[in-house]
Amino acid sequence: MVRLVDIQVVRADTLSADSLGNRSVEQPVYGSRGDIVDANGVVLAGTVMRYNITLSPRNAVEFTRTTAAGDQTVTVAQAAAEVGAITGQTGDAILAIISSSLAADPASDYAIVTKAVDVSVFRAVDALEIPWIYFEKKPGRVYPDGAVAGNLVGFVSSEGEAQAGLELGQDSCLASTNGTETYEKGADGVRLPQSTVTEKAAVDGGDVVTTIDSDLEWFVQQALAKQAQATGAAWGTVVVQEVKTGKLVAVADYPSVDPNNVNGTANPDDRGSRAFTASFEPGSTFKALTAASVLDAGKATVGTKITAPYRYLPGNGANINDSSGHADLHLTLTGVLIESSNTGMSKFGELLTDQQRYDYMTKFGLGTATEAGFPAEDSGILHPYDEWDPQTKYATMFGQGLTTTALQIASIYQTIANKGVRLPVQLVAGCRQADGTMTNVPAATGTQVVSASAANDTSEMLEMVYQKAWLSKVWNIPGYRVASKTGTAQMPDGHGGYTKGYLVSVSGFAPADDPEYVVSVSLADPVKLNSSAAPAPIFQEVMSQVLKKYRAVPSGAPAPALPGTW
User: Fold this and answer.
1) 502-527, pLDDT tens digit by residue?
2) Which helix (DSSP H) or strand (DSSP E) does residue 449 occupy?
3) How confident is residue 190, by pLDDT bands cut at 50, 70 and 90?
4) CB-based contact 388:397 (threshold 8 Å)
5) CB neighbours of 281 closer than 8 A, spacing ≥ 6?
6) 524: three-class secondary structure by DSSP
7) CB of 258 within 8 A of CB of 264?
8) Over the Cα atoms of the chain, what is R_g?
9) How many CB atoms are located within 10 Å of the residue 526 CB?
10) CA distance 277 to 255
11) Measured distance CA(295)–CA(450) in Å, rounded
């Protein structure tokens, strides 16, 4: 009687708490990581439920299985073999997990058999009804479109930790908050039915809504890969940007990465987006910026005349030459762009002070990363003007002596196409919360970099380049006025000099009479065709598809005829 009172009254609370502690098990409840979607809601990165298969080593004993044929005794070895046949392991390997766990701790109640199996494996193992086998739910990441936008989306580790791309850059939006739940188990370690209690609810992550059109992204990646392989390029990028919004509708890289199989991409540099992270000397595509700056400052017009020699030796000691020998050329500013003359552009560029040119370049966005917020985005290199040596003073007029990213070049052309107003570069439209509200919406306020008239004059000169330059037949797009410019720049060797390879590019926009889209293409060291003829077919193919896909209205009146020579 005294013993009964002692147990049920005097020590009841203490014994109950101790008992619950011995049979109560706490485990995490995983929230779902948010999706990454394209502008149309297509899922580029999503979450699916995965399962860790675990066991209780101390409770791993033979058991009785009831079947239609009657009760069967199942040994530990047989159960291990059954599980292994489903998970792809041997029965001996699973027995080794049990024995090693017991060797380390004879009371061991937890060991992992395998991690992150899909629902089909979970169901097959669960159907075996092995009483000492358990399951832990754990969300896993899946990328339905594989390498399409893989360079942008990025990837997570096997533990679900963000590693690259938007997965990393937008982790604060995507990340979920785990909760906890407890359940009670019997002496045999089996969970007691209806004993689960949620202690803390899990919170799912938000969805990252990008500006990318996944269908166009696929097309652009295919066009880029085909030409890059045909020309033997080391790598390449294509950027497609909306002129009037600053939104990126496609950013393609070659080679790209499939986030479902990151280890299948041997070169770590191929796992990111070089469009954001690799800066280079842009070459002659940069001449459009110098021309727009000179026009805006009122130092020249589209018809201002100069004489462009093959070699120009200005008074400060610099030495400038064109890409191939020629007699003196009598060119207008328009003609300088058509002929892509370094010496001619130098004569126009020197009409501005170094500070004026530097200020224009910074207003165009050079020297700073874009507003896209992509992880590890390169800012490019733009040295202060008071640090320029004599050669750099002139080299920066025609796209050398500084570096830019593919995104920065696209932004320069977006500014010219948009009447001189530079818009923030957008890759992410915002973070969509569970209730549908959008947060982290980027600012869309533009900056007037050059006047509308200077931008329009530059656009018309670039139309003359499109019509009269040596690639006019290669990049022709019937029915539309197009403004474009090529570039060929030496590639640095990393030791203060240059390699024998070139980075070749084409940038432009259309329809030039009412610009809607910028396309900028770059190929690094295309050894089989080391000139702007290599990227031109990509520009033509991508721009044609963009205009067709988005039903751009064909141009009406022809482009103004601007004289290139005098």
Assistant:
1) 999 999 999 999 999 999 999 999 99
2) none
3) low
4) no
5) 399, 400, 401, 402, 403, 489, 490, 491, 492, 503
6) strand
7) yes
8) 32
9) 24
10) 14
11) 9
d(CA 205, CA 219): 30
Q: pTM to 2 decimals?
A: 0.86
Task: For residue 161, count CB atoms less than 10 angstroms from its CB and return exposed for 0-12, middle for 13-18, buried for 19 or more.
Answer: exposed
Q: Of 144, 135, 85, nearest to 115 (Cα)?
A: 135
DSSP H helical ranges for 67-184: 76-87, 91-104, 119-126, 150-153, 165-169, 171-174
3-class secondary structure, 149: coil
CA-CA-CA-CA dihedral for 188, 194, 195, 201, to nearest 10? 130
Of how many residues is the chain composed?
566
Tokens of residue 296, six digits: 């805006």
- Cβ pair 155, 165 in contact under 8 A: yes
User: What tens digit of pLDDT does each residue of 133-159 get?
Assistant: 999 888 889 999 999 999 999 999 888
**Rounded distance, CA 362 to CA 385, Å?**
11
Residue 12 has pLDDT above 70, yes or no: no
Distance CA 128, CA 189 (A): 17
Burial 286-309 (b: 16+ CB within 10 A, else e): bbbbbbbbbbbbebbebebebebb
In this structure, which amino acid lies at residue 418?
N
- Rounded Cα distance between 175 and 9, Å, is 48
**DSSP conformation class of 552:** P
In DSSP notation, 195-206 reads: --EEEE--BPPP
Report d(CA 94, CA 85) in Å as an integer. Answer: 11
Tell me how many degrees the CA angle 5-7-8 measures, rounded to the nearest 5: 65
| Alpha-carbon span 276 to 36, nearest angstrom | 19
Q: Is the Cβ–Cβ distance between 178 and 56 less than 8 Å?
A: no
The answer for residues whose C-beta is within 8 angstroms of residue 40's C-beta and 6 or more apart is 213, 214
Instruction: Return the structure tokens found at 304.
Output: 């201002």
Hey, what are 330's tokens?
A: 């009598």
